[in-house]
Amino acid sequence: MREAFFERKTNETEVKINLNLDKKGESSISSGIGFFDHMLNLFAFYAGITLKIVCSGDLEVDGHHSVEDIGITLGKAISKALGDKNGINRYGEATIPMDESLASSVLDISGRPYLVFNAEFSDKRAGELETELVEEFFRAVAFNSGMTLHINLVYGKNTHHMIEAIFKSFGRALKEAVSVTCDGVPSTKGVL
Questions:
Q1: Rounded mean pLDDT, 129-138
Q2: Spatial distance between the Cα atoms of 119 and 65, rounded to a whole number of angstroms
Q3: Which structural domains are found in the chain, ordered by start?
Q4: What global pTM score does this model have?
């Protein structure tokens, strides 16, 4: 089983993540930011994984530290669970509609972290989540997991739908990328 536990504690947050890439189960997310919890639950469902997250952070300041630190911790947990990446598909992509919105995520678990994030939201908040933190979350995941990640919001009007399409497409793309499809490491270099 490809699973990992990762914990991060700073003066601003304490994050604990349990992740199982091979078992789709009931996830449990508690970040203190309701809309973000909803998005992470959707991500886990569409990725076909079990994800448990507990975060206590300085939400009296704002959500930035909690969202970013969850992204850092999730990225590290994904990397740890994948180990030497033996047999993974490596690449994943998904385009997902959510009513009037359409989002695409394309990723490469390459060991070369990079984020391209093309999305603008019409509202500054979705529930309690500041929408500018969506990009911060994905940057933290990409750079701490060692993946190249391209996220493109093709179009949309409703901020909730736009963000939901992004999280669902990321989940489906990750599911494809971490699936075991071959023997060995999928690279001409022999290492990822």
A1: 98
A2: 21
A3: 3-178 (3.30.230.40)
A4: 0.96
